[in-house]
Amino acid sequence: MHDLLSATIAKVDGFETNQALDMSYDFRNKVVPLMRILLADDHDMVRETISAYLMSEGGAEVMTTIDLPSALEQIEAEGPFDLVLLDYNMPGMMGLEGLTRALTANGGKGVGILSGSAPARTAQEALDAGAIGFIPKTMGAQSLLNAVRFMCAGEVYMPVALMREQSAANEHPLAKKLSPREMEVLGGLSRGLSNKEIARELDLQEVTIKLHVRTLCRKLDAKNRTQAALIAKEAGLF
Q1: Cβ–Cβ < 8 Å for 232, 190
Q2: Which domains occur in the chain, in start order?
Q3: Quick check: pTM over 0.90?
């Protein structure tokens, strides 16, 4: 996301919001259909930066919102969209349940997932559940734009790095012991997040995270959360 912020900041200040948005042009000056995108993310900087870049560099028409309920309302009022991008950890998502609801609402057109923390296993589960793609928020600006164009064309997208990570994680016996939610919590521990921060990311109660941490320590034979995170890192899970 740092790459995207750097690449966009100079363009956002001077971006003309009244420019024609009914079509865009490829490198041979042929008229191509406009990408209509709905971006739902509760982090203001992420949402504003990505939407501004997709409009200024990709010629897309982008609508934005901050949670799943409002995203579903936007789809009903303005959709279907060529692509709906949902932050995996924003309010209302409840894991992949939100993806399923958005897929139904968007009438068969693509719905992709954005995430800054979900493990590779979650990315694959999203694709298995019908997502047209999975985009890490750490992705560079041009790569993100290319991925969005790919998904708008109806093609399934997942970064090669995530596929390799998933393959490595699936081969480790520790990964087979843990549920998808436990892997998400373990990912938060590996990044040094508190229970409260993990709860916010996953849209869960803090007491639920405490229970997951206790279960993780038992399954990983760890004395505490710090040791659990170290075990995960040494195993190459994160």
Answers
A1: yes
A2: 2-159 (3.40.50.2300), 172-234 (1.10.10.10)
A3: no
